[in-house]
Amino acid sequence: MLNVQTVPPAKDILTPEFLQNPHRVCAELREETAIHRINFNGPRWALVRYAECFKFLRDPRLSSAGRMRLLLSRLPPETRSSFAELERALEMWMLFLDAPEHTRLRKLLNKGFSPAVAEALRAQVEALVDGMLDAEVPAGAKRIDILRDIAYPLPVRVIAQMLGVPASRHQEFVNWTNAIALFVGSPTTNEVAGAAQEAVLALTDFFCEIVADRRRHKGNDLISILIDIEEDGHVLTEEELYAQCVMLLFAGHETTRNLIGNGMYTLLKNPEEMANLRRNPEIVRMAVEELLRYESPLQFVTRVVKDELEIEGVRIQAGDSVLLFLRAANRDPRKFEHPDRLNLKRLKNDHLAFGAGAHFCIGNQLARIEGQVAILKLLQRFPAMRLASESPEWVPNFALRGLRSLVVEV
Ligand code: HEM
Asked: Could you give the number of structural domains in the chain?
């Protein structure tokens, strides 16, 4: 039996100030203790140090299933049933499953995301970025918005290309994934859940048509690969296939956009390091790892406790939820020397920006390539680039940290 204890009152740390500058709050929490009680759609436990995040991301007693139900549980019971379709669709996402269902889907999807597949996409990503810089940035432009011109369209076009769907619909994709992101990362309301449900259903219909067409005309895109895949006698069901396509579009877009936006913002705020990268483009891989650590696109991931357990002497009940603050872990001085200093040549950079354990980001190689290509090309194309405003606005989303726009003078 674990010791009985009183649960501390939950702190309100997720405020508008936190959106502007999460680092100060994270540092204070990290110094105080490894585990806290905070409010986010109700009271939750929060882990803020590297060692505990690293350990519990791998602990099967913390479940990835049931996270969606948790978000919806904050809605009044009389309206919850209106979101049954949203719940059902998201609960099929591999991201929200545990072993053995997760393991089966992950094995199938891994085939489409090997490092070799991602690396083969590098030339296509380079061509896409060149094309966007030529088409979207008129010659002689004095200002560009890095978010609008590159960071928003690039990840959608890349994943659309991988799935073999027309990029002409990318603005619709962006709107749909934004609606899902708001549901995942902000306080749940009927309105937010309604918009997310509409988006998920629209995307599912869209992929339903694409899959039917692809069955007739297979190519070498990811959907054709997934249709063909057969491993250990298991295949994806039709519904699972649509759900994973929607998940990939969402997961590949919202995060990578913020890698490019947050990364460029960080470089512009650190001109010496930016100049260092411009002079030494061969360090771009290390540089992107450091940008992922320093200004991580995903603030936290959530887990639901399956069996009662103890973390740092605190008893956590089954059914409780835990937020693992990747961002706070990535600036933990117990793990990283001078964590608040941007060092593009940092060695041993074992950051947790892509998570860890069974759900470690399947798209990490692809995201890294998109980040490396976009950031380097922007630096090369605009050698005199500087921020048009010292304090751009952050999107009001507590889980996904990103800028609304990033206007620069070129
Ligand atoms: C910089 C960009 C990215 C970041 C920071 C990021 C971060 C993460 C993190 C932290 C997780 C673990 C979630 C958890 O443990 O609950 C994750 C999972 C996942 N990511 Fe990414 N991601 C990025 C880009 C991408 C891309 C480009 C794709 C696909 C095209 C993608 C697809 C996924 C999927 C499918 C999962 C679920 C994996 C599983 O459940 O086994 N991500 N990502």
From this structure: 1
